[in-house]
Design a protein that fits this description.
Elements (H helix, E strand, L loop, with lengths): L13 H22 L7 H29 L9 H22 L4 H10 L1 H18 L3 H7 L1 H8 L1 H15 L7 H22 L5 H26 L4 H13 L6 H18 L3 H5 L4
Helix pairs in contact: 1-2, 1-3, 2-3, 2-8, 2-9, 3-5, 4-5, 5-8, 6-7, 8-9, 9-10, 9-12, 10-11, 10-12
The structure holds protoporphyrin IX containing FE.
Protoporphyrin IX containing FE (HEM) binds next to helix 2, helix 3, helix 5 and helix 8.
Length: 283
């Protein structure tokens, strides 16, 4: 049994120690604020929001490990995947607990909310799939299930990623936050990256640039499409949202942030001079 800050052979790992501190930090920060009396009567709502945000961040980082380790030529990143995944499950559990506490643990009210609000039903399905993945994340369970079966089961992480992004994205109607759109765009990039590595075999650098374009355009379309289909805005207003991506009047747009991040990764891949090897990085 190794500690969260050690390698399998027991050696201290600075990378794992920093990541461990990073996954605990939001929880510690929240607890300190609570004891300082900085959280008012809406404690549960604040906890729902904060834990939800950290759950999705750690989940997306878990899914980003495969492309990042290949692009940055940093295989040790794989050793962080389990810790990040478990952190995502931990923060989602706190999220569900805070949501239930906000409804005074009234099981009837909780069940009604989960069943009749679409975004909550989507979040609940994501959580229900997360639980078996968390429970089977130990070495003993990998052994017990056998490599291929364990891998097939853990591929459900993509489904969790999709449902979690959808859950967050559907909240745009209530909370206009750019983060939901940014994660949606980055999720498209991650999935397109994996699809490319799986289907195309040995793509060249232009495929990588294509991924940048796909992620950027998808972010713009997802944002505008969301307001077109789920809100009462007319098509003229939707065109305004779309045009804000290139007229620069609305400040830094989610599509620009996505474009900058994935373009930087593409440039790093090119600088390493081996984009082909990068895309073929093993999962
Ligand atoms: C267990 C089932 C879940 C329930 C009952 C649930 C419930 C909620 C509720 C009530 C909100 C707040 C809505 C508001 O502020 O009005 C919320 C927001 C959120 N949830 Fe969940 N959720 C669930 C699963 C998930 C999962 C699996 C994730 C991601 C891993 C997630 C991530 C988020 C995020 C990012 C927000 C928005 C936070 C913010 O910016 O305010 N949730 N969820």
């Amino acid at each position: 049994m190794t500690a969260p800050w050690t390698e399998r052979n027991g050696d201290f790992s600075a990378l794992k120690a920093i990541t461990f501190a990073g996954v605990l930090a939001p929880g510690v920060y929240f607890t300190v604020r609570y004891f300082q009396g900085a959280l008012d009567a809406s404690l549960w709502q604040i906890l729902v929001r904060e834990s939800g945000l950290w759950a999705i961040r750690f989940l997306m980082l878990t899914l980003a490990i495969t492309p990042l380790k290949a692009i940055l030529a940093w295989p040790q990143l794989t050793t962080l995947r389990r810790m990040l995944g478990v952190a995502a499950l931990g923060y989602t559990s706190v999220h569900l607990l805070a949501f239930s506490a906000d409804l005074t643990f009234d099981l009837g009210a909780i069940a009604a909310e989960l069943a009749f609000r679409f975004y909550l039903a989507v979040g609940t399905i994501a959580f229900l799939i997360m639980v078996p993945l968390g429970l089977t994340s130990t070495d003993a369970m990998v052994k017990r299930l056998g490599g291929p079966r364990w891998k097939r089961l853990h591929q459900m992480a993509y489904v969790i990623g999709f449902l979690s992004v959808l859950h967050f994205f559907l909240l745009l109607l209530k909370l206009i936050t750019p983060e939901a759109t940014i994660w949606a765009g980055l999720f498209v990039w991650m999935m397109a990256y994996r699809g490319l590595a799986f289907w195309v075999g040995r793509p060249g650098k232009w495929w990588g640039l294509g991924l940048v374009a796909v992620a950027t355009v998808s972010t713009m379309l997802l944002e505008a499409g969301f307001f077109l289909f789920l809100s009462t805005l007319g098509t003229d207003r939707v065109f305004l949202i779309l045009s804000a991506n290139w007229n620069g009047q609305a400040g830094l747009r989610p599509s620009w942030i996505v474009a900058m991040l994935v373009l930087s990764l593409w440039i790093i891949g090119i600088a390493r001079g081996d984009y082909k090897a990068m895309v073929r990085g093993r999962a």
